[in-house]
Design a protein that fits this description.
This protein is mostly helical. The protein is built from eleven helices and three strands, in the order H-E-H-H-E-H-H-H-E-H-H-H-H-H.
């Protein structure tokens, strides 16, 4: 019984902000501001797509899933960080840690698949325009979106199940700001060989597979664009891909740096900064990138804003008449 009590951990302590004196005072408001902008920005994109009939196309259907995913990714980590700032204790229970790791892995894995699906949509639109309606029918879009969600959840469930078998021998200090696979494997005292092999194999399929599919899709897209004779057509084709390409670069750039740093054992400050970029800043930038660079989104936003102003004016006039 004594050995069992020694190895059982009921709570973890995050060390990510331990190097920042009085971090709860200086970081609470900036983190709250970033989280608010992330939720409101992505919610705006999601709502616009549901309200505006002109945005009910496959590209925006997948974009609505991306916006919802970004809200989920931030909501898995940031509220807990904010609560810990208020409590002035960077802790998380064992069960909450496993749940956070599962949902974070599930949502980030789903996003990798969704970015690949969005690349395929652009390929079908530019390279196969005559067959686009068949290739990207509502049924196909639903199946593709559902497949990304299921794939991300199954992959994360596998890693979470393996992590629940680990022993920590009383060590409960996580050198990170959230529960993720690499930092938990660092502090485990049991054999993590199976966990590491599984992580490497699944990363090749869940992250590497979509990445190479995106490269292939854009290679074919670039080839088709270069064959176009119309300068206007080339410009329009490039413009429909630019926003997606920027998000792909940000996502994979942050993911590569995040997991390479975590596995290489770099400084705590570097790991913390990279994780903030990966889980907070990137989801905040996505709606800004699409709203600032996309004419259709900006047009839909103006229509909704104009409709609200007209509604308010009509309500005011009616009230005045009464």
């Amino acid at each position: 019984m004594g050995v069992r009590n020694q190895t059982q951990v009921v709570e973890f302590i995050f060390l990510g902000f331990s190097t920042v004196p009085n971090s709860h005072i200086y970081l609470f408001l900036p983190f709250l501001a970033i989280y608010s902008v992330t939720v409101l920005g992505n919610l705006m994109i999601f709502t616009l797509i549901q309200l505006d009939p002109s945005l009910r196309t496959p590209m925006y259907y997948f974009l609505s899933h991306l916006s919802f995913l970004d809200i989920c990714i931030s909501s898995v980590t940031v509220p807990k960080i904010l609560v810990n700032f208020l409590r002035q204790r960077q802790t998380i229970s064992y069960n909450q840690c496993m749940a956070q790791m599962f949902f974070l892995g599930s949502f980030t894995g789903t996003e990798a698949g969704l970015l690949a699906v969005m690349a395929y949509d652009r390929y079908a639109a530019i390279c196969k325009p005559l067959h686009y309606s068949r290739l990207m029918s509502p049924k196909v879009c639903t199946i593709l979106a559902l497949a990304t969600w299921i794939g991300g959840a199954l992959n994360s469930a596998l890693h979470t199940a393996l992590c629940t078998t680990l022993s920590f021998c009383g060590v409960n200090e996580i050198p990170h700001i959230l529960c993720d696979i690499p930092p938990l494997l660092k502090i485990a005292c049991s054999d993590v060989h199976v966990n590491e092999i599984t992580a490497h194999i699944t990363t090749c399929f869940v992250a590497g597979g979509p990445f190479f599919f995106i490269l292939l899709s854009y290679s074919l897209i670039l080839s088709s664009i270069l064959k176009m004779h119309s300068t206007t057509g080339k410009h329009k084709a490039f413009s429909t891909c630019t926003s997606h390409l920027i998000i792909v670069i940000i996502y994979y750039g942050n993911a590569i740096v995040n997991y390479n740093h975590s596995s290489a054992g770099d400084s705590l400050e570097t790991d913390t900064l990279v994780s903030i970029m990966y889980c907070m800043v990137s989801p905040m930038l996505n709606p800004l990138i699409y709203s600032l660079r996309n004419k259709e989104v900006k047009g839909a936003l103006k229509k909704v804003a104009g409709g609200q102003r007209k509604s308010l004016c009509f309500h005011h006039a009616t009230s005045w008449g009464e």
